[in-house]
Recover the amino acids of this structure.
């Protein structure tokens, strides 16, 4: 993307911030991709499937741990409500203990009811113990983002990716075959990094201003996002009907489309302080309209390019065992790219702090997805990818309709 197009998308004043985030995202993408390549080429496919099941359970439990706190940290920092950070941290740690109990319950299920998955049960039990410190990675990114400390945001995420890559390489070199050792090394290293970065976020406070309306909205956001937690169980759901090998293929098919979140995040994080600092969608649309058009065009071109090349890239990166994953990945890549720019309309809706704009996408979309899982589970990984594609399309349609209605309502008042 050349500099003139980048200026049209984010604006010239934000180019420095965008460059920092861009560098951080690219480095994080490469490290994450490298970690997956090490997993798929030098470690057993069954272990990769086990690891993805554990991560799926962790993500599911995390959704019951005040998941909306990261969003509220960003909004609080953007509005200068620095007194909110302390209560947010305390609330997060308390909620994380509940998440630990959820993971332990799943570990008990695998231990007592799945005699073929005792090793997986041990990995989950260890994850439950480390979870309270591991699951604070949504606080410091939101605070750095809201304070426009993009260098720290990019550095923190790059360090996170670097630790994961280093851990996976060490595990592969020493031919570690126990999932509990894998989980302990990865989660402990990332937990220590989270503690250090959260301490840095605390030093950025400049006042003790407290905004109770944001904390109240955070409760709505957390409740709504709980429903989204069911989406983190896709690998667990798939593993119950198919093999760990199918889980591994499905997980690999998500790798390249998953990188798009980082690409979208560069623009979204640069624009977030501006989006959350205004209460007027009309003013926001004036700022964002031209950028939105350029984003849509750019992402559509990116989607077309990926659709044509991903089937050749996947087997080169992850070995011939995962060739079929390339077919699934190209369709998901295309759909995510073509609908990606509409996610920024969702951020604009959240800026109004109206609970319905949190509940509708975070309850409706998961409900539709689960119904599609049930209908398509017999098709394995292909069915799960199809469900994700349909969800992305429907969610984009909702964002367009809801934001258009919001604009019309504000214009009618003025």
């Amino acid at each position: 993307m050349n500099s003139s197009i980048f200026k049209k998308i984010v604006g010239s004043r934000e180019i420095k911030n965008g460059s920092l985030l861009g560098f951080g995202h690219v480095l994080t993408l490469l490290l994450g991709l490298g970690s997956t390549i090490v997993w798929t080429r030098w470690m057993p496919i069954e272990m990769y499937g086990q690891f993805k099941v554990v991560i799926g359970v962790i993500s599911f439990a995390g959704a019951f741990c005040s998941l909306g706190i990261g969003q509220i940290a960003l909004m609080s920092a953007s509005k200068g409500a620095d007194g909110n950070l302390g209560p947010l941290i305390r609330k997060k740690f308390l909620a994380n203990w509940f998440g630990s109990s959820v993971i332990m319950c799943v570990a008990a299920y695998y231990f007592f009811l799945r005699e073929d998955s005792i090793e997986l049960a041990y990995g989950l039990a260890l994850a439950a113990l480390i979870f309270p410190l591991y699951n604070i990675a949504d606080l410091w990114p939101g605070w750095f983002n809201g304070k426009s400390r993009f260098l720290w945001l990019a550095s923190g995420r790059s360090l996170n990716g670097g630790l994961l890559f280093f851990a996976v390489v060490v595990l592969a070199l020493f031919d570690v075959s126990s999932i509990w050792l894998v989980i302990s090394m990865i989660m402990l290293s990332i937990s220590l990094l989270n503690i250090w970065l959260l301490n840095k976020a605390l030093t950025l406070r400049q006042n003790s201003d407290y905004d109770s309306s944001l904390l109240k909205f955070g409760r709505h956001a957390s409740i709504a996002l709980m429903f989204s937690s069911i989406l983190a169980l896709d690998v667990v759901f798939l593993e119950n009907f198919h093999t760990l090998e199918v889980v591994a293929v499905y997980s690999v098919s998500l790798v390249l489309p998953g990188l798009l979140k980082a690409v979208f995040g560069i623009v979204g994080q640069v624009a977030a302080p501006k989006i959350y600092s205004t209460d007027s969608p009309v003013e926001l649309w004036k700022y964002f309209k031209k950028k939105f058009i350029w984003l849509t065009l750019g992402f559509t071109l990116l989607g077309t390019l990926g659709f044509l090349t991903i089937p050749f890239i996947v087997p080169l990166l992850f070995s011939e065992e995962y060739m079929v994953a390339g077919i699934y990945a190209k369709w998901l890549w295309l759909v995510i790219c073509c609908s990606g720019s509409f996610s920024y309309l969702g951020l604009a809706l959240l800026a109004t702090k109206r609970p319905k704009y949190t509940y509708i996408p975070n309850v409706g979309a998961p409900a539709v997805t689960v119904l599609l899982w049930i209908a398509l589970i017999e098709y394995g990984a292909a069915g799960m990818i199809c469900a994700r594609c349909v969800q992305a399309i429907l969610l984009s349609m909702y964002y367009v309709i809801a934001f258009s209605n919001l604009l019309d309502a504000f214009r009618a008042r003025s």
Q: What stands out?
A: Residues 3-413 form one domain. The CA atoms of residues 141 and 154 lie 9 Å apart.
